[in-house]
Amino acid sequence: MIYLDHNATAPTDPSVAEAMREALASAWGNPSRPHRAGQAARRTLERARADIADLLGATAGAGDLVFGSGGTEADNLALRGRLDPAEGRRVIITPRTEHAAVRETAAGLHAAGLAEVRWLDTDADGRVTPASLEAVLGDIPSPDRTVAVVSISWANNETGVIQPVDELGACCRRHRVALHVDAVQWVGRAPVRFDERPIDLLSFSAHKFGGPKGIGGLAVRRGVRLHADLTGGPQEAGRRGGTENVPGIAGAAAAATAAGRRVRALDPGVLAARRDDFEARILAAVPEGRVHGASAPRLWNTSSIGVKGIEAETALLMLSERGVCAAAGAACSSGAIDPSPVLLAMGVPEPVAAGTIRFSFGSQTPAAELEAAATLVIAVFRALLDD
Asked: Contact, 117 vs 106, CB < 8 A?
């Protein structure tokens, strides 16, 4: 099997199972209780919090981590938790190229009359320019009192296109509005350095960097007000009710430690060259294809290739039969036949969007596997086009 679907979920790091097993055996108490069993669980929880904060570069006391069920919940908390209609803070600013956890949440809040969404324009690669954000913020009276949050993905989950978060964050700072960054695809693949960046809220998900599914969270800069979206308990400093999943969080911490070592050791230029070679091999044999976001900075591990005249679901089944695991658009849209909303928002023609396959690999994916995969992809694309 050649696994090229890391953006959906990364292979579990070998250290994770042992960390979770140990937590299940010795930290099974409720971490909110003051007795010995509870405090053993609390110590495991807080050690894990420190290890994950280290991966995020949130270790200088500038922020807190709020644990939840994953990136989707973290994105929802970042948007819903920042709304404060009583104070007039109800404007959400985001592009239509965001992950559904942001895009659909914002649209749903707007439809329900709970928020006003201002959609940001992007260029043909799906990038938001600082000038575009500046124009929207400049058009809003008193943005510091009316804008709840600006929400941007650091690296797009479908195309890998990287947003200029430092410049966008500087723009938000000038207007004194909060910036949320969905870093689900970034964390574990590139340095974060949360403490050093103009980011107020940052989402992450453990299974994207080798941890267990069902665990993720939100880094929250100190002083940023955030209302709980999931209520019913005082856990996570009152920002997320419910007893913490200590074994899952311990597994996430083990994965974070391993991911930190990989990030420090990897050479993004070498890995991007592997991606570029993979794309060049395919396009040389399938000139009908196009790489989405090719002219923009992209995360080294992601390649989104669209081919007019093929059906993505059929191509995926044929690739799977040949041992290649890939995806059509976002992972959560698996099985859907509709073209990706992200690609359509970028202006990609519908027939090309409907024939788009996303390939995503890891830093430990051998170059030989990518070369073998390219040969198999070419065979499938040509079979479908020449049929």
From this structure: yes
Report in angstroms the alpha-carbon separations of 233 from 60, 219, 229, 300, 305. 28, 19, 11, 41, 45
367-380: average pLDDT = 97
Task: Please say which residue of 210, 244, 262 terminates a domain.
Answer: 262
**Interacting residues of 332 by C-beta distance below 8 A, sequence separation 6+:** 100
Residues, the chain? 387
In a domain, 9, yes or no: no
3-class secondary-structure state, position 112? coil
- The CA distances from residue 203 to 34, 41, 50, 75, 154, in Å, are 30, 24, 16, 6, 10
For CA atoms 363, 367, 373, 378, give the dihedral sign. positive
Supply the residues annotated as catalytic: 332
Instruction: Report the alpha-carbon distance of residue 262 to residue 272 in Å, rounded.
Output: 15
Task: Look at residues 222, 200, 359, 365 and name the one whose alpha carbon lies nearest to residue 279.
Answer: 359
Judgement on whether residues 351 and 247 belong to the same structural domain of the protein: no
Contact residues for 231 (Cβ-Cβ < 8 A; gap 6+): 241
Pair 123, 223 in one domain: yes
**CA neighbours closer than 13 Å in the CB half-sphere of residue 284:** 8
User: How much is the average pLDDT of 6-24?
Assistant: 97
From 232, 262, 292, the end of a domain falls on 262
Stretch 198-210: mean pLDDT, rounded?
98
Beta strand ranges found along the chain (DSSP E): 2-3, 63-68, 91-95, 116-120, 147-153, 179-182, 201-205, 216-221, 289-291, 302-307, 324-325, 356-360
- pTM beyond cutoff 0.90: yes
Q: CATH number of the domain that 169 lies in?
A: 3.40.640.10
Task: Write the pLDDT tens digit of every residue in 186-200.
Answer: 999 999 999 999 999
- pLDDT at residue number 85: 85
The number of domains in the chain is 2
